[in-house]
Input
Amino acid sequence: MKRKSMFVIVLAICIILTGCENYDIIGVQPVELDYLITKIEARYFPTKTEAQEYYEAKKASGYLLFINNDLDVKEFFKSLPGEMTEDGGKIVSFMADEKQNAIDNQYEFLNDNLTLIHKEYNGEPEIEEDATAQNETTSNSETENQAADKVDLEEQALGLVGNILMQKYDEFGLMSYGIEEKNGEEYFVIEAYEESEIKITTLGWYYVSIETNEVYEEDIVTEELIKLD
Output
């Protein structure tokens, strides 16, 4: 029996870039992740250390930390559209549009305005690299890009399937089952499902090639993979 992994794949790998302790920080935690609407809780911190201490005290299962040396991060946080929480956070929502799903819109907005310096899942960093400051050297930039590529693989697979199914279903959920080898090739295996008050119904099984990013739907009778355009 396949074991379900968390849908929030973006939190699967931790990147720690040292030397950013004195930068203003935007912390982000997922509140609701769906391909039609996604919500995050954003939070401002004056230092990276304070941000990490906050999330550790909260026993957060996963979070992201961002910086930007080219703008006033505190003012940027204030300008975010959303509803303030009682303890100083802000709930920010992103919607799907005709071009891409809500999760992709969320990451596009964050990556266009901020630089990711830390990702953590279950408090266990899997990758650690050193850097003295944001974009200080080419080697630091290359290290960050390589780590981000690893994080994005499964997230990208979910996005590819989500964009296809948005043309077919008004509401659906996706669950990743990790990597499976089939016919000598490795795929991310993704279940699409529909949830009601009384049951969860599988809509289909989808395979995304790690090598080519091509998306296939599995024939539940023959187990043959049918390529989707």
